Amino acid sequence: MAAPVDNSEAPFARALREWVADLKESEDKKSPFYEKVLAAGSEDDGSEPFDARDPQVCSKRLSEFIEKLQQTRRDESKYLRLCARLEPFVDGITRLIKIFGTLAQAAPFEVGIAFAGAQLVLQLASQHVSAFNKMVDIMVEIERQLRCYDKFSVAFSDSADVHSLLLEAYKTIISFWHRASQILSRSSLRIAVSTLIKPLDAEWKICLEKLQRNSQAVLALAQATTAVESRQNQELDLTKKVAKWILAGEDAAKLLFRRDLAESRSIRHEGTCSWVFDQPGLKMWFDANSNAVAWYTAPPGSGKTVLSAAVAQYVEEKGNGQLIYYRFSFDDSTRRMPINALRSIALQLRTAMGKVPEEVMEIFNSEMQRHAYRLQDTEIAANVVEGFLKQVPRIHIVIDGLDECSDIQGALRLFSRLAGFENYGIVKWFFTSRDEPVIQAAMEKIQATELRPAKGTVMSDITTFLDANSANLAVRKCKDCVEYWTAASQENFLYSRLMLQLLCGDGVTCSDEIHEELRRFPPGLSGCYTRCLDSLTQRKDAERELARRMFVFLVFAAKPLTVNELRNALAIRMEPGFDDYQPGRVPSLELIKSLGGSLIRIEPESGSDAGPLVKFVHKSVVDFFKEDPSRLGIPAERTDLRNFFTSRKEGDLQLGRQCLKYLQFRRYQTDVEMPTVLANNNEHAFLKYAAAFWFQHLGDVEHNQELFSEVRSFLRSQAFRTCLAVQVHVRPHLFARYTGIGGGSIFSLGLEAGDMSKDDNITDPLPHWVELYKPDGRDISRALYDFIKDWHEVLVLHPEARNQCQLGQAAKLVFPGLASTMSKGIRVSTIKLPPGAHKAAMSSVYFNKSKASARVTYEGSSKTAAQWHDAPISSGEPSASGKIAFAPPTSGQTTDKKRLIRFTEEANQPTTSPTAWSIDLSGLEVERSEGGAESEALHAPKSFHIEGTKSGRTEWGLLKESTSVLVGCGPAVAFHFRNMILDDMRKQETDSGYDSASDTDADSDSGWSSNSESDSEETSDSEEQAPQQKPKSNASDCLVICCHGEKPVWISWDNQSNSQTLVSCALHPHEKLAVFSRRLGELELVDMASGEISRLAIEDPAAASASASVIFRELRFSPCGQYLYSLLVLIDDNADVGSTCQVLLSVFKFDGQSRDAGLLSRCAAVQRVTYKFRAATERLRAPFILSHWDVDMLYLCLPLLSCSPKVVRIDLARARHNILEDVTYAQTLTSPVFFPNSTASRNPRLLYRSSPTDSKDILLLALDGGFQGDGQGDDGNSYPPVVMEWKISKKDGWKMWDEETDGQEPALAEDLRTYSQLRGTFVSAEKRFTVVVRSGLDWTRKAFLSCG
């Protein structure tokens, strides 16, 4: 009897179950395949279940079986290598089984038997090496064939055809396990191995052909399905993309006016505005069968907006063409921008046409190629509108409030161009504005039909309006009231409405009282506003003060305030006792409306959850409150009225101090959940405004010591960290870079990655006068400058990681509140120096047992000797110290040399008498001092000395240093230097467009690599020329190798290739041999005893390209000296955004007894890691990457070496034995670490300590001391040596490298920090803002920038 059909069972599961059931029915019940595979784990199986229902468990069991097999055959190296090759197969089959489990919905037993089958055939094949080798090859090939299913099964998870093909592939694999087990079972009969391999080959050939046909069918099906779907969705998706590009991140609700038009029509009273439709000019404009322009002009407050809505309604009702409507608004940050008018018109035209014209698509595609992912350029926006207008049959475009545009001249230029544009259809333009000369001139130029209300026309509409509202008064008993009122309005609707609201108030009960009020009512808008204030003087003292403060906030606020922002601001009390938010003191909206009366309005903020805005009813109200009360005719004795008027400086002072008070509420002195707080627009409503603008309000006030003390108290509190966290979210431009263009007269706002150049500036979000109050003010400015300079990229790109942005030791004293919130998982230590020490530098950093320690060199009072000491970084107490006595200078030489000092000693453990090497950075002369004795001068070739250069400049900059791994014939150290002056000259000659900081990092050990065109080893002295123009040496690079007991070796060359190159030596642990490479395909071997150099060809990976922008090869011998590791790093610019870094690690067997071809032989497959990041290669600075070589592990920091570098480690022990080309034993950190921006310029060094007894490892970054300046003088930025340590969990601190998730910097995938994103939405987009910026290389140089 057939089993009942489960209708709920997935078709895939049913088909698979039925096939396996047929297989079980036909199979011999005593066969290994039946017992170990088909019956294992089934419900009727009484044995220990294989748990075939769980792919993870199955995978683990199979891996454990392979591991057990390795252990049993540990004495057979070939088995070990073969088992290592099975790991990708296990991963691949696991992924496939997970897919099947998803399709089968319940992950039935039948899905998991692939694991049991694989285990069975491996177990059977393990009896013979040849059979096992063959089975491993087959499984490797199966894994390759299955790769295509990973992506397609997910992308086409609903495709029945794909399900069928997947099932066929699975059946093919199981069938092969079945046949292979039958063949391999013959081994028990002791037949020859060859009789196993031949039939196994035949079965595998059949299986492989099926898998290949199946994968080709999957690919063809995927391509066909994709093509169909692409055709269906392409047009729709493209239209949406174009609309998103046009919108450019703006609030769509503010660019579409359906709701606004409805509101304007509801305000309009029946019978008003109808006169305009009888005007000959309007009739001619509307009836014209060609392009036409009309311009309606009238005084302020005369109802132009309502009239424009009436015209729009008239056009729609007549049905003669479609309507486009836009309204400028002076108090709306979005609607007063000319470019937003163009965006709105383009979006409405797209909707009206139902498609995107080809011409607009060409513009869109062109902008995408230029990475302009948002429509930001007004000229391009005008081109887009023209592209739409060219194809539209008939359209009416109504533009209201042209005089309220933020850039009237720019708007007129754009609209004049569009009005004169020749198109195929008919375009009618209708503008409204006040009668301003510049607008009138533009309208005359484009031959617009001018429409003005005839005398008495508006008066008639006002009469209609007042008559409609007369029920609110007793005017029906007084016929002349309306006439009197209308005459007083001077044809101003706003005046009439305000008068109506005033006279509808309490105290007016009869016609006689109305007459009285009308006679006393002042003429004109200013008089009307004064009357409003006069009514407030009758209120209680507390209400008058509240009204005064409300008007101050509305007049001087840096942005329109929401209702809740204003309510929270008005609840602030400056008295000492009020130190936190008090809900009972928050005024109600009803009270605010009552106090504001006719002067304010509540406007919904479309597209925002912040709530409605509080605004003045008209721009003239703002002008009124900014006016001198004497000019308004308010008598001096009316102090009650004059109290409502405040000067700009006094208003800013009041707002700034109240912002400080709010920020220092108790609730902001502790840890706050920032996303929750920022989303709370009720009790935290004023936090964003206070943090964003406190320093701006206080920037231009009459300051004094008392005000400075207030500011200092705030900056020292924990509330300051809350303020910074809020600023990062609402005003990210405060932490961006301002880069000078064209000599610094123009600045661009961006977030360029990498080191600072002399053109880069950062903001100083403090009142600019703070530094005048010495010494505290100067310390505050410098400490905040250093913090923002080092961490601005992290603060903007990773605001959630702000607690990992570390303060220096001095800054912690200045900002104790901010310091208290720094992450406890990071330790930052500033190297301690004796009093009077200067020119400090870290010679080496190392771990002494479990403690990080450093050897530091510094100068004291003597210029003929340097001092050094070893000390644990945490305590700074020296454990050893000594002096280095320099050789006396020869005649004419200065004693004040810039030196690089390094030490060599036995066993890599510090001693009390190490060998010191001092290298003069002007001529690369080397001095060697043994055990503190006077140095021995070892002179370099004369061509290396550069004369006549500016005082205080470094001529040779250190790019890379290498040290020996173990003690062999004596320790050695090698240095790659670059001629920084020649490098600067070549960059200026080629006008690279990027000015490096190398000429200003005087005391830094790092430098920029060159960017030139040929490569020759020979060097020659040039003829002497002007001292400031050309260095004496033509060598661009020099390698200096110092070996214990031997003279130094100098190797120079002139690098003029197009690539930036970096050289790192491998120093043999047992022989006086150094190996380095200056070009691809070649190694150079240096005998450090004789100085002889020989060359050896090397096979580089196929991916290596000599055209890469950055080429860096680091060579390293294993501790035993039998292996040579070649770490090749290639960095090149991407075609679109950012750069790609390729890491290629090759392992060679090194035979020191052989020569030429037998010296090196590749012994493992290349390890590959590819990483894409957001910076162009021109922004990169040597050393490009950081490395730390452990005995069996290589640790790397990939670029960028600032913000959030990608930290990777490669297992060298496994890499040495890996023979699979597509397998990389790489891991990356589970959680990112964050480096300061100055990392690359401070000779960074990376260490990693892993102890078997500790639960956590230590990642260490050492940054040298240094100086940065702009080359204009002695001022600049100096830094002490610093060490940063992170604790990394052994258990879950690392994860396997995944190319898909780890191979790209997250910021690269985003529309990264365009101008509008960095500017943020909290500051009005068209409103200019002022920031104080300081040079990125010299904090003492500052400027005031007005940005718009």
TrEMBL record:
Residues 271-434 form the Nephrocystin 3-like N-terminal domain. Residues 86-228 form the DUF7708 domain. Coiled coil: none annotated. SUPFAM superfamilies: P-loop containing nucleoside triphosphate hydrolases (SSF52540). Residues 866-896, 925-946, 990-1032 are annotated as: Disordered. Residues 1014-1024 have a biased composition (Acidic residues). InterPro entries: DUF7708 (IPR056125), NPHP3-like_N (IPR056884), P-loop_NTPase (IPR027417). Keywords: Repeat. This is NACHT domain-containing protein. The lineage of its organism: Eukaryota, Fungi, Dikarya, Ascomycota, Pezizomycotina.
